[in-house]
Amino acid sequence: MNKYFLSIISILLLFQSFKVFDEIFYHEEEAKGSKIFAEVDDTDPDLTEDVNEKVEVAEKLDLDSLFVNFDVKKGEKIAKQCSACHDFSVNLKVKIGPPLWGVVGRKAAAISDYKYSDALVNFKKDWNRETLFSFLENPKNYVKGTKMIYKGLKKNSDRVNLISYLESLK
Ligand code: HEC
């Protein structure tokens, strides 16, 4: 009788320890998951949209905070890497690439006497801080099929300075 009693107790203890293990594990998973996903029910389109909006705003803010510090003079120096192919003057001269005077705020592929690649013609976005920031990091990756052969500027601060210089060309 005593033997059976002990076995039952040990089985109960075993189950109990599984439960404890489960709880620890569960809480760990919960802590790992992002707060957004823990709180939002994916099946509710309104809420998901709300989260997407928040993420977008967060990215925008991020770019704004990057542009708090910029140096137009440094940007002008970096632009020397571009000047073999691009004219930065108000004369809008076509070289290997299209002229870049007033490029910020301009539609992509907007210079009528320049023969753009189909990729850039079909890009159909405006050049602004956001699009330039991504394009100049890795042109071929951002506009697949572009004929701009340039490896890209990896440093955020270099791109911020360069774009600030481009913004000054008006
Ligand atoms: C080796 C030549 C070359 C270099 C270097 C180069 N580009 Fe370009 N760039 C091009 C060509 C060619 C195009 C046209 C791309 C197309 O049609 O796909 C272009 C297109 C662009 C466009 C789009 C303009 C428009 O009218 O839509 C921007 C912006 C631009 N380049 C910025 C830069 C900047 C800034 C640099 C320097 C960091 C740079 N490029 C370096 C050749 C170059």
Describe this entry's structure for a reader:
With 170 residues, the protein is mostly helical. It contains eight helices and no strands. The chain has helices at residues 2-32, 35-39, 45-66, 72-78, 118-121, 129-137, 139-142, 156-167. Mean pLDDT is 84; it is low at 33-38. The structure holds heme C (HEC). The site of heme C has 27 residues, from helix 5.
Summarize the structure.
With 170 residues, the protein is mainly α. The protein has eight helices and no strands. It has helices at residues 2-32, 35-39, 45-66, 72-78, 118-121, 129-137, 139-142, 156-167.
> What percentage of the residues does DSSP assign to strands (E)?
under 5%
Given the C-alpha coordinates, what overall shape results? Answer: elongated
Order of helices and strands: HHHHHHHH
Which molecules other than protein and nucleic acid are bound?
Answer: heme C
Total helices: the number is 8
Tell me what the CATH architecture of the largest domain is. Orthogonal Bundle
Please give the number of β-strands.
Answer: 0
Quickly list its features.
2 domains, mainly alpha, binds heme C, single chain, 170 residues, 55% helix, Cytochrome Bc1 Complex, Chain D, domain 2
